[in-house]
Please model this.
Amino acid sequence: MSTPKGKPSKEQVRARKKRRAARLQQAAAAKQAERRRNMITAVIVVIVLALVAAIVLLSKALGPDPASTTPTAATTASPESTPESVELPENCTEPPPVPSEALQLELPDAATAEGKTFEAVVTTNCGDVVLELDGERAPQAVASFIALAEEGYYDASPCHRLLNSLNVVVQCGDPTGTGGGGPGYGYGVEYVPEDGLYPRGTLAMARTWDLETGTGSQFFIVAQDSEWPPEDGGYTIFGNVTSGMEIVDQIVAGGVYGGGTDGYPALPLSILSVAVSEK
Model:
């Protein structure tokens, strides 16, 4: 029996349905693949953003600022890049091996130093540097410094950074010598000069970008009159050098290892021990 002209046969209808179903299935598969690609892309973006954020935070926490004039808790060098053999001055001995890690301690009570003045004798491989610690203006910084000294935290730790630019400082206080080591706690900025001036011989705490918890164990000695705007947060002054600045001058005169104005000192300076007594 013939099929009337213009009316599709059952086979044609079934074929059309199959083609339509195939197109729908293909479109669904394409959408699913697109969703999968979008999901993968989103995950990759999240991971990349997380890595970028981590790198930014790490660079802020550990690296010097772009102008290389801020004594952040960091350095551009590491113990692996320090000079293996330099001609040491007569007053210096070979520095001890760098500890592999820093002790992790708890933040001491600021009350232990409030209203008190202390003397700290910092014995280095190049001689003694004597500090006066001001527990009246910066009780938390002083309490922390004393506690770390008593625990031997600073023993055998290298002074890992020389900033020799518009501002000149020698930075110490990280036993690992990387600029990234800390005592396991942090606290905020205390006494900051309103005029932003840090005279030669000033003893101040280095910090990260975080003004509330970015101060730890690292400190710096100002080698020549320097200035940091207080509106940028400043650095806690917790004392001054009473003798031994000639050792600091010696390190500054030696320059930065490998050249430049910010990095590991060419003349290695290490803290051997710290003895603190109340005045």
About this structure: The first strand starts at residue 117 and ends at 124.
